[in-house]
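Hello again,

I reread your note about wanting to compare the complex against the isolated chains. To keep things tidy I'm splitting this into two emails, and this first one only covers the full assembly. Below are the input lines as submitted, including protein chains and any nucleic acid or small-molecule components. They are followed by the predicted structure of everything together. The single-chain runs will come separately.
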Amino acid sequence: MAISSSSRFGTVIAYVRTMAVFIAVWWAVSVWTSNLVLLPTPFAVIEAIVDLARDLELFVQAGISLGRMMISLALASLLAIPLGLLMGLRRTLDDIVDPVIELLRPISGIAWIPLALFIFGIGNALPIFIMTYAAFFPILLGTVAGVRGVDRGLIDAARTMGVPRRTIVTRVVVPAALPSLLVAVRLGVASSWTAVVAAELIGAPSGLGYAVEWYRELLMTPQVMAFIAMIGVLGYLTDTSLRALAQRFTPWAADARRM
Amino acid sequence: MLPLALVFVWQTWGVITGNPRTPVPTRVVAAALQLIESGELPLAIVQSLGRVFAGFAIAALLAIPLGLAMGSFRRVERNVDPLVESFRPIAAIAILPLAILWLGTGTPAAVLIVAYAAFFPIVVNTVAGAKRISPTLLRAAATMGLNRFKVIRTVVVPGALPSIGVGLRIAMGVAWTAIVAAELAVGAKAGGGGSGGIGQMMFVFYAYSIELNRIVVCMIAVGLVALALDRLLRGGLRFFMPWMAR
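Full-complex prediction:
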C-alpha cells in the first residue's frame, strides 16, 4: 500500500493527538494519587530525562547496553550463520545437530541467568553470554530456513554451468537466503534486547537494566521511567534501522517490510 | 545420537575434573528425583503456571477485542495504534521495577508482567488477521444487510481466528519467558521473598544454597514446560480450528 504524503501527515497528527491524551490522563491520575514515588507527573519524568541527558548518564548507560548488544550480536552471528548455512546445505549435519538445538532452544536465555551468574559472576560476561544465547537460535533457525528456501532450480542451473560448489554457496545460496537471514537477525536482536534488560537487572554493575533497578531502590521513580523510556526508544530504533538496512540490501523482499 | 554423546562427554568430563559439586547428568537426575519427591518442583511449576495463565487470560481478554476493533475500524486503529507502537518496544522485564513499586513483590506484579508481555503479540496478530480478510467478503456481508457488528461477529472473527491463534501461541511463549524473568528478578531484588515459582526457586538455589545440580534441574523444567505449553496451545488451536493450515 502506497502511503501518500497527506495520509502520513494525518498519521503524525493522530500520533500527537493520542499521546497528548495519554499524557493528559497520566497527569490527571498522578495529580489525583498525588504520590510522587508511585506515579510522578509526566513533567517530572521529562525533567528527569533532561537531567539524566545533561549528566550524560542516560547515554553512558545506553551506550554500555548497546555495546553489549553489538558484541553479542556479532558473536551470535559468527556462530549461527555459518552453522546455519552448513546445516541448510548438508542434510546429514542437520540430522546430527538439530536434536541438540531443539533440546536447548526451549530453555530461554533468561533461565540461564542463575547458572551463568555462578560461572561468570557479576560483570560484562554475564549479559553478553545471555544475549548471545538469546540471539543465537532465531538467527540459526532463520538461516537454515533461508537456505532451505533457495530455489533448487537456481542451484541446479549454476551446477550445470560448471560453477564450483564454493562459488555456488557465495554467489547463489547466500544472496538468495539473504532476506530471511536479515529477518532472522532482526528477530535475534529483538530477543537479545529483551534478555539484556533481565540480565542487567540481575547481574551487571552497569547498563540500562541496572540503572532502572538502581533508581527503583532509591525510590526515584521519574528516573526509573526515564530509563524505561530509553529502553523502548533504543529497542524501536534498532528495529527500525535493521528494517531500513534490510530494505536497502534486499529491496526485492516483501519480507523485509512486513512482520 | 549427538545429544547422547554430549551427555556422555559431560558426565565423564564432570567426573574427571572431580569437583563433587559440578553438575553432571547423574547428579542432576538424582537432584530432579529429590525435588519432585519433596514436591518442591511441582509446586513451583504450578505456581508459575498459575501466574502465566492469569496474565495470559487478562492479556487475551483485553487484546483480542481491541485488536478486532483496531482491525475493523480505521479510526480506532489510527487513534490507538500510536499507543500500542510506543509501548511495544519496551521489554516487559523493564517494567518490572515499576510493577514491584506498585504491586509489591508478590503474585500481582508477576501477573502484570506476564499480561504486559503477552498483550502485544496478541494485539498485533489480531489486527493483522482482521485486516487480511478479503474486502469482497466484507462487502458481500454488508450488501446482504448485516450491520457492522454482525459483520465483525460472522465474518471478521472467524476469518481472523488463525492469525489470532498464531498471536496466542507467540504470546504464550513470551509469557512463560517473562514469568521466569520476573520471578528471578523478584528473587534477586526482594531477598528471596516467599512469592515462590520456578524462577524464584532457581534464584534461591543460586544465592542461598549453592546447588548447581538443582539449578540445572530447574532449567530443564523451564524448557520442558515451554515445550508442553506450545504443544498444548498448538493442539488446542488445531482442535478448535481444524481448517487452519499447519
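For quick reference: Residues 165-203 of chain A form the longest helix (39 residues).

B.
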